[in-house]
Please model this.
Amino acid sequence: MEKLMQVKAQGELRENAWQNQRGENMIIASVELELTDGLDTIVAEVTGDEARALAAQPAEPGTTGFFALRFSTSEVKTREGRPFKTMRCRIQSFSLYR
Model:
């Protein structure tokens, strides 16, 4: 989904270590943005080099941008073993109007 939205808040840069299927150690950078279109508000995640660039030059609250968003769901289990679905929103690309 592509949408014109306004930045409400930006989180800190996070760098998380993980291991890929070949056993190689990797680090993924991510930044969360709280975005609104004036009606709905979502939290979406930027990853990789775009996350590092956004952390270096943060988006001020009120900055408008065009965002290509991808929503996905996954099923996880509670500690008691009950399944429930979670939804994640990732920003595939964006352009900010500064």
Summary: Residues 2-97 form a domain with the OB fold (Dihydrolipoamide Acetyltransferase, E2P) fold (CATH 2.40.50.140). The first strand starts at residue 2 and ends at 10. The chain has one helix and six strands. The radius of gyration is 15 Å.
